[in-house]
């Protein structure tokens, strides 16, 4: 019966091509608008490291005071004093300080020009803590951190550029005129949102090409390539800057259990209380220890325009469905004599429901195909509305293709329920009598 009802539906659609086209366009445009904005929202709101997001925590300690912060929220970064003190305490399974720097990568070949590349200064725990994918070698060791060693990890793109993709572990790379021994090569890795460096990137960035030890970067007096906020201008000199109340560092910790989280949060609170007793802080301890998703939520990484666009597009889809309901109602009720004859010949209301819902499903399939084409165009044009780092995340992948078709079919079937119910209420005796 399904194939028979499908044939009936296709015949009916061919009988009224203009009405069919209007319904297909209504479904197609409504679905395309909602799926295009959903592709952006999905990309910006997703979990960047789902396998570990619940055990990775960012630390905040208020070093500015209540008069310099908003709504009691501590600053998004740490001072050098606080970050290094918490790191030295070793109260977490793994911990790493992170800050962005900019370095000149100088090729061995004198015929090739140096290039300015983004880099991160961090610790050895960074790589196992964030499951960074290596294709050669590995990260440096904790001993390298302690020795302030000149070691580095580079990305595949950097390796291709410097060594033509060959084995480079053990070789040296020239950064700002200083030689660093390569310990590993990673995939071009930049989880989106870039959760570990939200204060400097807003959550969306292409990542870095080079990673070097935080201790070595401090020795070389490499200033941050990101945000640097100070409540008071520090005295001149690198040593004075490190002892100032300027915030520029992120501290991430891996805490596998709730007990670990509670213990760590208690330690950070106690640390802030010690700073208050020592006279450095004139306010009560104000600290936060948040996991990845809470951190992204507090930092408002999801662009407000993507949320607004999604709500507006869903509203547009509802309007399109309301129009489709009206068109289907007009189409089905024009066939009241046909329905009356079918009912008189023994068709049940269930049969009427099956016939017309299948017909609506064929409209949904056609609308879904149109919506898929329009969604593809919409994804290509996302850059006209959203910034490039966000627009490039919107892709027409198999999941979105399947979702577009499912939403189109489901929307058309839902829109057909009321018209089908009205059609099933047709009285065969009245229709036979009047016709």
From TrEMBL:
Coiled coil: none annotated. The chain crosses the membrane at residues 21-41, 310-332, 353-386, 398-418. Keywords: Cell membrane, Membrane, Transmembrane, Transmembrane helix. Residues 20-224 form the MacB-like periplasmic core domain. The keyword Secreted does not apply. It is a multi-pass membrane protein. It is found in: Cell membrane. Residues 311-428 form the ABC3 transporter permease C-terminal domain. This is ABC transport system permease protein. It comes from Luteibacter jiangsuensis.
């Amino acid at each position: 019966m399904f194939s028979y009802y499908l044939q009936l539906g296709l015949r009916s659609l061919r009988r009224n091509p203009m009405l069919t086209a209007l319904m297909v366009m209504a479904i197609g445009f409504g679905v395309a608008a909602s799926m295009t904005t959903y592709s952006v929202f999905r990309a910006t709101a997703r979990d960047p490291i789902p396998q570990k997001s619940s055990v990775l925590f960012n630390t905040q300690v208020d070093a500015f005071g209540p008069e310099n912060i908003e709504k009691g929220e501590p600053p998004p970064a740490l001072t050098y004093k606080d970050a290094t003190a918490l790191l030295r305490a070793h109260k977490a399974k793994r911990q790493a300080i992170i800050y962005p720097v900019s370095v000149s990568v100088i090729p061995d070949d004198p015929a090739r020009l140096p290039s300015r590349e983004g880099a991160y200064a961090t610790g050895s725990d960074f790589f196992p803590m964030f499951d960074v994918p290596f294709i050669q070698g590995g990260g440096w060791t904790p001993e390298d951190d302690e020795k302030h060693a000149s070691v580095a990890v580079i990305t595949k793109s950097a390796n291709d550029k410097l060594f033509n993709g060959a084995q480079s572990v053990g070789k040296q790379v020239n950064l700002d005129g200083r030689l660093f021994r390569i310990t590993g090569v990673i995939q071009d890795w930049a989880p989106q949102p870039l959760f570990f460096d939200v204060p400097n990137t807003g959550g969306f960035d292409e990542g870095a090409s080079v990673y070097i030890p935080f201790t070595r970067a401090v020795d070389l007096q490499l200033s941050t390539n990101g945000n640097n906020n100070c409540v008071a201008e520090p005295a001149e000199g690198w040593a004075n800057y490190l002892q100032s109340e300027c915030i520029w560092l992120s501290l991430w910790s891996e805490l596998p259990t709730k007990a670990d989280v509670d213990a760590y949060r208690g330690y950070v609170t106690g640390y802030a209380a010690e700073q208050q007793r020592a006279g450095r802080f004139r306010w009560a301890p104000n600290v936060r220890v948040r996991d990845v998703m809470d951190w992204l939520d507090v930092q408002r990484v999801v662009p407000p325009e993507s949320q607004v666009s999604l709500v507006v597009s869903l509203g547009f889809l509802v309007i399109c469905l309301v129009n489709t309901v009206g068109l289907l109602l007009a189409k089905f009720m024009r066939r009241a004599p046909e329905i009356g004859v079918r009912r008189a010949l023994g068709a049940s209301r269930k049969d009427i429901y099956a016939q017309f819902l299948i017909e609506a499903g064929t409209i949904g399939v056609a609308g879904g195909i149109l919506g898929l084409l329009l969604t593809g165009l919409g994804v290509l044009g996302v850059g006209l509305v959203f910034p490039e780092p966000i627009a490039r995340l919107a892709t027409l992948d198999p999941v979105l293709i399947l979702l577009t078709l499912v939403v189109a079919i489901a929307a058309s079937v839902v829109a057909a329920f009321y018209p089908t119910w009205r059609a099933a209420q047709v009285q065969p005796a009245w229709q036979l009598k009047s016709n």
